Amino acid sequence: MSILHCKFTKLLKYMNGRLSIKMLETLATEVKEEDWSRYRPYSEIPGPKPVPFLGNTWRFIPFIGDFKIQAVDQVSKRLYKEYGDIVKLEGLLGRPDMVFIYDANEIERIFRQEERMPYRPSMPSLNYYKHVLRKEYFKDNAGVIAVHGESWYNFRSKVQQVMLQPRTARMYINAIEEASLAFLKRIGKIRDKNDEVPDDFMNEIHKWSLESIARVALDVRLGCVDDDANVETQQLIDAVTTFFKNVGVLELKIPFWKYFNTPTWLQYVNALDTIVSITSKYTTIALSRIKEIEKSDKEPSLLERVLALEKDTKLATILSLDLFLVGIDTTSSAVASTLYQLVLNPDKQDLVYDEICRVLPTKDMQLEGKHIDKLKYLKACIKETLRLYPVVIGNGRCMTKDTIIKGYRVPKGVQVVFQHYVISNLDKYFPRSKEFLPERWLQDDGVHHSFASLPFGYGRRMCLGRRFAELEMLVVIAKILQRYKVEYHRERLEYYISPMYTPKGSLNLKFIDR
User: Fold this and answer.
1) Whole-model pTM?
2) Contacts of 322 (CB under 8 A, 6+ apart)
3) Calpha distance 176→371 (Å, rounded)
Protein backbone atom coordinates (compact mmCIF):
# COMPACT_ATOMS: atom_id res chain seq x y z
CA MET A 1 0.00 0.00 0.00
CA SER A 2 2.86 2.36 0.88
CA ILE A 3 4.56 1.62 -2.48
CA LEU A 4 1.37 2.50 -4.36
CA HIS A 5 1.00 5.66 -2.31
CA CYS A 6 4.59 6.65 -3.09
CA LYS A 7 4.14 6.11 -6.82
CA PHE A 8 0.87 8.05 -6.80
CA THR A 9 2.51 10.95 -4.95
CA LYS A 10 5.34 11.09 -7.52
CA LEU A 11 2.79 11.07 -10.32
CA LEU A 12 0.93 13.98 -8.76
CA LYS A 13 4.17 15.93 -8.43
CA TYR A 14 5.04 15.30 -12.05
CA MET A 15 1.60 16.40 -13.23
CA ASN A 16 1.49 19.46 -11.00
CA GLY A 17 1.04 22.53 -13.17
CA ARG A 18 1.11 20.42 -16.31
CA LEU A 19 -1.49 19.36 -18.84
CA SER A 20 -2.49 15.71 -18.54
CA ILE A 21 -2.38 13.49 -21.60
CA LYS A 22 -6.17 13.57 -21.79
CA MET A 23 -6.18 17.35 -21.64
CA LEU A 24 -3.54 17.47 -24.36
CA GLU A 25 -5.75 15.32 -26.55
CA THR A 26 -8.74 17.62 -26.06
CA LEU A 27 -6.59 20.57 -27.15
CA ALA A 28 -5.98 19.04 -30.56
CA THR A 29 -4.09 21.32 -32.93
CA GLU A 30 -6.41 20.52 -35.81
CA VAL A 31 -9.85 21.99 -35.18
CA LYS A 32 -13.01 21.09 -37.04
CA GLU A 33 -14.30 23.86 -39.30
CA GLU A 34 -17.50 24.32 -37.32
CA ASP A 35 -15.51 24.84 -34.09
CA TRP A 36 -13.09 27.38 -35.58
CA SER A 37 -15.35 30.35 -34.78
CA ARG A 38 -15.20 29.57 -31.04
CA TYR A 39 -11.61 30.85 -30.87
CA ARG A 40 -10.21 34.36 -31.09
CA PRO A 41 -9.16 35.58 -34.55
CA TYR A 42 -5.52 35.72 -35.62
CA SER A 43 -5.72 39.52 -35.96
CA GLU A 44 -6.19 39.85 -32.19
CA ILE A 45 -2.85 38.25 -31.24
CA PRO A 46 -0.91 41.05 -29.52
CA GLY A 47 2.34 42.38 -30.93
CA PRO A 48 4.14 45.44 -32.32
CA LYS A 49 2.14 47.17 -35.02
CA PRO A 50 3.53 47.28 -38.57
CA VAL A 51 3.83 50.50 -40.54
CA PRO A 52 2.78 50.94 -44.19
CA PHE A 53 5.15 49.48 -46.79
CA LEU A 54 7.96 48.52 -44.37
CA GLY A 55 5.75 46.53 -41.98
CA ASN A 56 7.85 45.53 -38.95
CA THR A 57 11.01 45.06 -41.00
CA TRP A 58 11.98 48.68 -40.32
CA ARG A 59 12.64 47.71 -36.71
CA PHE A 60 15.77 45.83 -37.82
CA ILE A 61 17.15 48.71 -39.95
CA PRO A 62 20.25 50.35 -38.40
CA PHE A 63 19.84 53.82 -36.84
CA ILE A 64 16.06 54.01 -37.30
CA GLY A 65 14.95 50.59 -36.02
CA ASP A 66 14.52 49.69 -32.36
CA PHE A 67 15.43 45.99 -32.80
CA LYS A 68 19.05 44.87 -33.19
CA ILE A 69 19.94 41.46 -34.64
CA GLN A 70 22.83 41.12 -32.16
CA ALA A 71 20.39 41.78 -29.30
CA VAL A 72 17.52 39.48 -30.26
CA ASP A 73 17.67 38.04 -26.74
CA GLN A 74 16.74 41.45 -25.30
CA VAL A 75 14.12 41.98 -28.03
CA SER A 76 12.54 38.66 -27.09
CA LYS A 77 12.49 39.59 -23.39
CA ARG A 78 10.94 42.94 -24.22
CA LEU A 79 8.18 41.40 -26.35
CA TYR A 80 7.31 38.98 -23.55
CA LYS A 81 7.12 41.77 -20.96
CA GLU A 82 4.99 43.99 -23.20
CA TYR A 83 2.61 41.45 -24.73
CA GLY A 84 2.64 38.20 -22.70
CA ASP A 85 2.77 34.48 -23.56
CA ILE A 86 1.98 34.88 -27.27
CA VAL A 87 3.25 37.68 -29.54
CA LYS A 88 2.76 38.26 -33.25
CA LEU A 89 5.44 39.89 -35.41
CA GLU A 90 3.83 40.54 -38.78
CA GLY A 91 4.73 42.55 -41.84
CA LEU A 92 8.23 41.14 -42.39
CA LEU A 93 9.11 41.87 -46.00
CA GLY A 94 9.70 38.70 -48.00
CA ARG A 95 8.92 36.47 -45.01
CA PRO A 96 5.85 34.93 -43.37
CA ASP A 97 4.55 36.28 -40.07
CA MET A 98 6.16 35.02 -36.88
CA VAL A 99 4.29 34.13 -33.69
CA PHE A 100 6.46 33.92 -30.56
CA ILE A 101 5.44 31.45 -27.84
CA TYR A 102 6.53 31.87 -24.22
CA ASP A 103 4.47 29.03 -22.73
CA ALA A 104 6.10 25.62 -22.11
CA ASN A 105 2.72 23.83 -22.09
CA GLU A 106 1.90 25.13 -25.56
CA ILE A 107 5.34 24.15 -26.82
CA GLU A 108 4.87 20.64 -25.44
CA ARG A 109 1.44 20.36 -27.05
CA ILE A 110 2.76 21.37 -30.47
CA PHE A 111 5.75 19.04 -30.25
CA ARG A 112 3.69 16.09 -29.00
CA GLN A 113 1.33 16.35 -31.94
CA GLU A 114 3.77 17.13 -34.72
CA GLU A 115 3.37 15.24 -37.94
CA ARG A 116 5.69 12.86 -39.79
CA MET A 117 7.41 15.69 -41.68
CA PRO A 118 7.39 18.82 -39.47
CA TYR A 119 8.53 22.07 -41.04
CA ARG A 120 11.00 24.35 -39.30
CA PRO A 121 10.82 28.09 -40.01
CA SER A 122 12.45 28.28 -43.41
CA MET A 123 15.85 29.75 -44.20
CA PRO A 124 15.19 31.20 -47.66
CA SER A 125 18.84 32.12 -48.21
CA LEU A 126 20.19 28.61 -47.52
CA ASN A 127 17.23 27.01 -49.28
CA TYR A 128 18.04 29.08 -52.39
CA TYR A 129 21.71 28.14 -52.19
CA LYS A 130 21.00 24.41 -51.94
CA HIS A 131 18.05 24.09 -54.31
CA VAL A 132 18.72 26.77 -56.92
CA LEU A 133 22.24 28.21 -56.92
CA ARG A 134 24.06 24.91 -56.31
CA LYS A 135 21.31 22.53 -57.37
CA GLU A 136 23.67 20.48 -59.52
CA TYR A 137 25.81 19.66 -56.50
CA PHE A 138 23.07 18.80 -54.02
CA LYS A 139 20.40 17.39 -56.36
CA ASP A 140 18.07 15.15 -54.31
CA ASN A 141 20.45 14.91 -51.33
CA ALA A 142 20.29 18.39 -49.79
CA GLY A 143 20.73 17.18 -46.21
CA VAL A 144 18.59 18.19 -43.23
CA ILE A 145 19.30 21.92 -42.83
CA ALA A 146 16.85 24.22 -44.63
CA VAL A 147 15.26 21.13 -46.21
CA HIS A 148 11.66 19.95 -45.74
CA GLY A 149 9.13 17.42 -46.95
CA GLU A 150 9.95 14.08 -48.51
CA SER A 151 13.55 15.07 -49.31
CA TRP A 152 14.22 15.87 -45.64
CA TYR A 153 12.36 12.79 -44.40
CA ASN A 154 14.21 10.39 -46.71
CA PHE A 155 17.62 11.81 -45.78
CA ARG A 156 16.92 11.94 -42.05
CA SER A 157 15.53 8.40 -42.01
CA LYS A 158 18.71 7.06 -43.57
CA VAL A 159 21.17 8.71 -41.18
CA GLN A 160 19.44 9.01 -37.81
CA GLN A 161 20.01 5.35 -36.90
CA VAL A 162 23.74 6.10 -36.89
CA MET A 163 23.55 9.60 -35.44
CA LEU A 164 21.09 9.40 -32.56
CA GLN A 165 21.94 6.15 -30.78
CA PRO A 166 23.81 6.94 -27.52
CA ARG A 167 25.85 3.74 -27.78
CA THR A 168 27.15 4.82 -31.22
CA ALA A 169 28.46 8.12 -29.82
CA ARG A 170 30.21 6.26 -26.99
CA MET A 171 32.33 4.42 -29.54
CA TYR A 172 34.16 7.68 -30.31
CA ILE A 173 35.25 8.59 -26.78
CA ASN A 174 38.91 7.83 -27.54
CA ALA A 175 38.94 9.91 -30.74
CA ILE A 176 37.34 12.85 -28.94
CA GLU A 177 39.75 12.45 -26.01
CA GLU A 178 42.74 12.56 -28.39
CA ALA A 179 41.49 15.84 -29.88
CA SER A 180 40.91 17.23 -26.39
CA LEU A 181 44.42 16.29 -25.20
CA ALA A 182 45.87 18.05 -28.24
CA PHE A 183 43.83 21.11 -27.25
CA LEU A 184 45.26 20.98 -23.72
CA LYS A 185 48.78 21.08 -25.15
CA ARG A 186 47.75 24.07 -27.25
CA ILE A 187 46.46 25.88 -24.14
CA GLY A 188 49.80 25.26 -22.44
CA LYS A 189 51.67 26.81 -25.38
CA ILE A 190 49.55 29.92 -25.89
CA ARG A 191 49.37 31.01 -22.23
CA ASP A 192 51.35 34.10 -21.27
CA LYS A 193 53.52 34.48 -18.15
CA ASN A 194 50.35 35.14 -16.11
CA ASP A 195 48.77 31.89 -17.38
CA GLU A 196 46.19 33.86 -19.41
CA VAL A 197 45.23 32.86 -22.93
CA PRO A 198 45.19 35.50 -25.72
CA ASP A 199 42.25 37.54 -27.00
CA ASP A 200 41.50 35.08 -29.82
CA PHE A 201 40.99 32.10 -27.50
CA MET A 202 37.48 31.59 -28.88
CA ASN A 203 39.06 30.79 -32.23
CA GLU A 204 41.25 28.17 -30.53
CA ILE A 205 38.11 26.50 -29.17
CA HIS A 206 36.71 26.54 -32.72
CA LYS A 207 39.83 24.69 -33.85
CA TRP A 208 39.32 22.02 -31.19
CA SER A 209 35.69 21.63 -32.26
CA LEU A 210 36.64 21.25 -35.92
CA GLU A 211 39.32 18.70 -35.02
CA SER A 212 36.82 16.68 -32.98
CA ILE A 213 34.23 16.65 -35.77
CA ALA A 214 36.82 15.57 -38.33
CA ARG A 215 38.00 12.70 -36.10
CA VAL A 216 34.45 11.43 -35.52
CA ALA A 217 32.86 12.06 -38.90
CA LEU A 218 35.75 11.20 -41.21
CA ASP A 219 38.45 9.60 -39.03
CA VAL A 220 40.75 12.34 -40.35
CA ARG A 221 43.35 14.10 -38.23
CA LEU A 222 43.39 17.72 -39.42
CA GLY A 223 45.94 18.97 -36.89
CA CYS A 224 43.87 22.12 -36.26
CA VAL A 225 45.51 22.84 -32.89
CA ASP A 226 49.06 22.13 -34.06
CA ASP A 227 51.57 24.96 -34.46
CA ASP A 228 51.82 24.24 -38.19
CA ALA A 229 48.06 23.80 -38.77
CA ASN A 230 46.89 23.70 -42.39
CA VAL A 231 45.66 27.12 -43.54
CA GLU A 232 42.49 25.47 -44.87
CA THR A 233 41.29 24.67 -41.37
CA GLN A 234 41.22 28.37 -40.45
CA GLN A 235 39.53 29.17 -43.77
CA LEU A 236 36.81 26.66 -42.90
CA ILE A 237 36.29 28.13 -39.42
CA ASP A 238 36.14 31.67 -40.86
CA ALA A 239 33.65 30.55 -43.50
CA VAL A 240 31.34 28.93 -40.93
CA THR A 241 31.47 32.10 -38.80
CA THR A 242 30.66 34.25 -41.84
CA PHE A 243 27.77 31.97 -42.74
CA PHE A 244 26.13 32.34 -39.32
CA LYS A 245 26.76 36.09 -39.06
CA ASN A 246 25.30 36.82 -42.47
CA VAL A 247 22.30 34.49 -42.28
CA GLY A 248 20.69 36.69 -39.59
CA VAL A 249 21.03 39.78 -41.78
CA LEU A 250 19.68 38.01 -44.86
CA GLU A 251 16.72 36.51 -43.01
CA LEU A 252 15.55 39.43 -40.85
CA LYS A 253 16.36 42.58 -42.79
CA ILE A 254 14.81 43.68 -46.09
CA PRO A 255 15.71 40.82 -48.49
CA PHE A 256 17.39 42.86 -51.23
CA TRP A 257 19.51 39.78 -51.98
CA LYS A 258 16.49 38.24 -53.72
CA TYR A 259 16.65 40.97 -56.37
CA PHE A 260 20.36 41.71 -56.76
CA ASN A 261 23.71 40.52 -55.38
CA THR A 262 24.25 42.50 -52.19
CA PRO A 263 27.72 42.44 -50.52
CA THR A 264 26.28 40.42 -47.61
CA TRP A 265 24.81 37.86 -50.03
CA LEU A 266 28.07 37.53 -51.97
CA GLN A 267 30.03 36.98 -48.71
CA TYR A 268 27.44 34.40 -47.68
CA VAL A 269 27.63 32.46 -50.95
CA ASN A 270 31.43 32.61 -50.94
CA ALA A 271 31.47 31.26 -47.36
CA LEU A 272 29.16 28.39 -48.26
CA ASP A 273 31.22 27.58 -51.37
CA THR A 274 34.32 27.46 -49.17
CA ILE A 275 32.63 25.13 -46.67
CA VAL A 276 31.41 22.82 -49.45
CA SER A 277 34.80 22.80 -51.18
CA ILE A 278 36.93 22.06 -48.12
CA THR A 279 34.61 19.51 -46.51
CA SER A 280 34.16 17.75 -49.85
CA LYS A 281 37.94 17.53 -50.22
CA TYR A 282 38.42 15.89 -46.82
CA THR A 283 35.42 13.63 -47.37
CA THR A 284 36.88 12.48 -50.70
CA ILE A 285 40.18 11.69 -48.97
CA ALA A 286 38.32 9.69 -46.33
CA LEU A 287 36.34 7.80 -48.98
CA SER A 288 39.54 6.90 -50.84
CA ARG A 289 41.11 5.60 -47.65
CA ILE A 290 38.04 3.49 -46.91
CA LYS A 291 38.31 1.80 -50.32
CA GLU A 292 42.01 1.06 -49.79
CA ILE A 293 41.63 -0.40 -46.30
CA GLU A 294 38.95 -3.05 -46.30
CA LYS A 295 39.53 -4.28 -42.76
CA SER A 296 40.78 -2.39 -39.73
CA ASP A 297 40.72 -2.75 -35.97
CA LYS A 298 39.90 0.96 -35.62
CA GLU A 299 36.38 2.14 -34.90
CA PRO A 300 34.76 3.08 -38.23
CA SER A 301 33.99 6.76 -38.81
CA LEU A 302 30.44 8.06 -39.12
CA LEU A 303 31.07 8.27 -42.85
CA GLU A 304 31.90 4.55 -42.93
CA ARG A 305 28.88 3.65 -40.82
CA VAL A 306 26.50 5.50 -43.13
CA LEU A 307 28.13 3.94 -46.18
CA ALA A 308 27.78 0.48 -44.66
CA LEU A 309 24.05 1.02 -44.24
CA GLU A 310 23.14 2.96 -47.38
CA LYS A 311 25.95 2.41 -49.94
CA ASP A 312 25.44 6.04 -51.01
CA THR A 313 28.60 8.17 -51.11
CA LYS A 314 26.71 11.37 -51.94
CA LEU A 315 24.43 10.99 -48.92
CA ALA A 316 27.44 10.38 -46.66
CA THR A 317 29.21 13.42 -48.13
CA ILE A 318 26.25 15.76 -47.54
CA LEU A 319 25.87 14.46 -43.97
CA SER A 320 29.52 15.35 -43.33
CA LEU A 321 28.91 18.81 -44.79
CA ASP A 322 25.94 19.42 -42.47
CA LEU A 323 27.95 18.27 -39.44
CA PHE A 324 30.75 20.73 -40.22
CA LEU A 325 28.29 23.51 -41.08
CA VAL A 326 26.40 23.51 -37.77
CA GLY A 327 28.72 21.60 -35.43
CA ILE A 328 31.74 23.90 -35.11
CA ASP A 329 30.35 27.16 -33.74
CA THR A 330 27.55 25.58 -31.69
CA THR A 331 29.66 23.11 -29.72
CA SER A 332 32.59 25.48 -29.20
CA SER A 333 30.26 28.26 -28.01
CA ALA A 334 28.68 25.87 -25.49
CA VAL A 335 32.13 24.87 -24.19
CA ALA A 336 33.26 28.50 -23.90
CA SER A 337 30.05 29.45 -22.11
CA THR A 338 30.31 26.54 -19.64
CA LEU A 339 33.94 27.38 -18.80
CA TYR A 340 32.94 31.01 -18.29
CA GLN A 341 30.12 30.08 -15.92
CA LEU A 342 32.46 27.83 -13.95
CA VAL A 343 34.97 30.65 -13.47
CA LEU A 344 32.16 32.93 -12.32
CA ASN A 345 31.10 30.22 -9.86
CA PRO A 346 34.36 28.79 -8.47
CA ASP A 347 32.54 26.80 -5.79
CA LYS A 348 30.77 24.86 -8.56
CA GLN A 349 34.06 24.38 -10.39
CA ASP A 350 35.53 22.89 -7.20
CA LEU A 351 32.64 20.41 -7.02
CA VAL A 352 33.21 19.39 -10.64
CA TYR A 353 36.93 18.92 -9.97
CA ASP A 354 36.21 16.77 -6.92
CA GLU A 355 33.92 14.61 -9.04
CA ILE A 356 36.54 14.26 -11.78
CA CYS A 357 39.16 13.23 -9.21
CA ARG A 358 36.85 10.50 -7.92
CA VAL A 359 36.00 9.21 -11.39
CA LEU A 360 39.48 9.65 -12.90
CA PRO A 361 42.03 9.38 -10.05
CA THR A 362 45.04 9.72 -12.41
CA LYS A 363 45.50 12.19 -15.28
CA ASP A 364 46.69 9.55 -17.73
CA MET A 365 43.66 7.28 -17.17
CA GLN A 366 41.88 6.70 -20.48
CA LEU A 367 38.23 7.70 -20.57
CA GLU A 368 35.60 5.01 -20.99
CA GLY A 369 31.84 4.97 -21.13
CA LYS A 370 31.57 4.02 -17.46
CA HIS A 371 33.47 7.19 -16.54
CA ILE A 372 31.18 9.38 -18.63
CA ASP A 373 28.15 7.98 -16.80
CA LYS A 374 29.61 9.04 -13.45
CA LEU A 375 30.31 12.66 -14.39
CA LYS A 376 26.83 13.67 -13.27
CA TYR A 377 27.65 17.02 -11.72
CA LEU A 378 29.62 18.10 -14.80
CA LYS A 379 26.64 17.15 -16.96
CA ALA A 380 24.44 19.23 -14.66
CA CYS A 381 26.77 22.23 -15.06
CA ILE A 382 26.54 21.99 -18.85
CA LYS A 383 22.74 21.70 -18.68
CA GLU A 384 22.52 24.68 -16.36
CA THR A 385 24.73 26.76 -18.66
CA LEU A 386 22.56 25.90 -21.65
CA ARG A 387 19.45 26.76 -19.65
CA LEU A 388 20.74 30.20 -18.74
CA TYR A 389 22.44 30.85 -22.07
CA PRO A 390 21.27 28.45 -24.81
CA VAL A 391 23.60 28.60 -27.80
CA VAL A 392 20.55 28.91 -30.06
CA ILE A 393 17.99 31.04 -28.23
CA GLY A 394 14.90 29.81 -30.06
CA ASN A 395 13.44 27.01 -32.12
CA GLY A 396 10.20 26.66 -34.00
CA ARG A 397 7.84 25.18 -36.52
CA CYS A 398 6.13 26.44 -39.64
CA MET A 399 2.42 25.60 -39.35
CA THR A 400 1.34 23.17 -42.06
CA LYS A 401 -2.33 23.48 -41.07
CA ASP A 402 -4.63 25.93 -39.31
CA THR A 403 -3.88 25.64 -35.61
CA ILE A 404 -5.23 26.86 -32.28
CA ILE A 405 -2.48 28.29 -30.05
CA LYS A 406 -3.26 29.95 -26.72
CA GLY A 407 -6.88 30.25 -27.82
CA TYR A 408 -6.06 32.10 -31.07
CA ARG A 409 -6.58 30.90 -34.64
CA VAL A 410 -3.15 30.67 -36.23
CA PRO A 411 -3.39 30.04 -39.99
CA LYS A 412 -1.30 27.68 -42.05
CA GLY A 413 2.06 29.10 -43.14
CA VAL A 414 2.76 31.16 -40.03
CA GLN A 415 6.14 30.56 -38.38
CA VAL A 416 5.73 29.72 -34.70
CA VAL A 417 8.93 30.43 -32.73
CA PHE A 418 9.55 28.86 -29.32
CA GLN A 419 11.44 31.43 -27.24
CA HIS A 420 13.51 29.01 -25.16
CA TYR A 421 15.96 31.58 -23.81
CA VAL A 422 13.22 33.67 -22.19
CA ILE A 423 11.22 30.66 -21.00
CA SER A 424 14.18 28.92 -19.39
CA ASN A 425 14.97 32.10 -17.45
CA LEU A 426 11.52 32.45 -15.87
CA ASP A 427 11.05 31.68 -12.17
CA LYS A 428 7.75 29.94 -12.82
CA TYR A 429 9.65 27.18 -14.62
CA PHE A 430 12.97 27.35 -12.78
CA PRO A 431 12.87 28.82 -9.25
CA ARG A 432 15.76 31.26 -8.67
CA SER A 433 16.19 31.20 -12.43
CA LYS A 434 18.89 33.89 -12.51
CA GLU A 435 21.22 31.80 -10.35
CA PHE A 436 23.68 29.17 -11.61
CA LEU A 437 22.36 26.10 -9.78
CA PRO A 438 23.50 22.84 -11.42
CA GLU A 439 21.99 20.97 -8.48
CA ARG A 440 18.52 21.54 -9.89
CA TRP A 441 19.31 18.97 -12.62
CA LEU A 442 20.22 16.30 -10.07
CA GLN A 443 16.79 16.36 -8.45
CA ASP A 444 14.38 13.61 -9.39
CA ASP A 445 11.09 15.15 -8.33
CA GLY A 446 9.86 16.76 -11.54
CA VAL A 447 10.39 20.29 -10.26
CA HIS A 448 11.02 21.75 -13.69
CA HIS A 449 9.01 21.54 -16.89
CA SER A 450 10.76 19.24 -19.35
CA PHE A 451 9.84 21.54 -22.27
CA ALA A 452 11.08 24.75 -20.62
CA SER A 453 14.71 24.17 -21.64
CA LEU A 454 15.37 22.50 -24.99
CA PRO A 455 18.88 23.48 -26.15
CA PHE A 456 18.90 20.69 -28.75
CA GLY A 457 15.27 20.97 -29.80
CA TYR A 458 12.83 18.10 -29.59
CA GLY A 459 10.98 15.61 -31.73
CA ARG A 460 11.57 14.54 -35.29
CA ARG A 461 13.78 17.54 -36.05
CA MET A 462 15.87 17.40 -32.88
CA CYS A 463 19.54 18.24 -33.42
CA LEU A 464 21.02 15.32 -35.36
CA GLY A 465 24.46 15.72 -33.78
CA ARG A 466 23.23 16.01 -30.20
CA ARG A 467 24.82 12.81 -28.85
CA PHE A 468 28.24 13.73 -30.23
CA ALA A 469 28.06 17.37 -29.12
CA GLU A 470 27.19 16.33 -25.56
CA LEU A 471 30.05 13.84 -25.49
CA GLU A 472 32.56 16.33 -26.92
CA MET A 473 31.62 18.92 -24.28
CA LEU A 474 31.87 16.45 -21.41
CA VAL A 475 35.23 15.07 -22.49
CA VAL A 476 37.01 18.37 -23.21
CA ILE A 477 35.78 20.14 -20.05
CA ALA A 478 36.64 17.11 -17.90
CA LYS A 479 40.17 16.98 -19.32
CA ILE A 480 40.65 20.75 -18.95
CA LEU A 481 39.54 20.82 -15.30
CA GLN A 482 41.56 17.70 -14.53
CA ARG A 483 44.71 19.52 -15.68
CA TYR A 484 43.94 23.18 -14.93
CA LYS A 485 42.19 25.38 -12.42
CA VAL A 486 40.42 28.01 -14.54
CA GLU A 487 40.00 31.63 -13.44
CA TYR A 488 38.98 34.95 -14.98
CA HIS A 489 40.17 38.36 -13.74
CA ARG A 490 38.89 40.77 -16.37
CA GLU A 491 35.72 42.82 -16.67
CA ARG A 492 32.57 40.72 -16.58
CA LEU A 493 31.26 39.82 -20.05
CA GLU A 494 27.71 40.20 -21.28
CA TYR A 495 26.13 37.73 -23.69
CA TYR A 496 25.15 38.53 -27.27
CA ILE A 497 24.40 36.81 -30.56
CA SER A 498 27.47 36.70 -32.80
CA PRO A 499 26.64 34.31 -34.38
CA MET A 500 25.84 31.97 -31.47
CA TYR A 501 24.70 33.15 -28.05
CA THR A 502 28.05 33.60 -26.38
CA PRO A 503 30.01 35.92 -24.05
CA LYS A 504 30.85 39.22 -25.76
CA GLY A 505 34.50 40.16 -25.71
CA SER A 506 37.84 38.46 -25.26
CA LEU A 507 37.69 35.31 -23.16
CA ASN A 508 41.05 35.77 -21.43
CA LEU A 509 40.75 32.79 -19.15
CA LYS A 510 43.57 31.94 -16.78
CA PHE A 511 44.65 28.27 -16.86
CA ILE A 512 46.61 27.42 -13.71
CA ASP A 513 48.38 24.04 -13.54
CA ARG A 514 46.97 21.81 -10.83
Assistant:
1) 0.88
2) 143, 144, 145, 464
3) 14
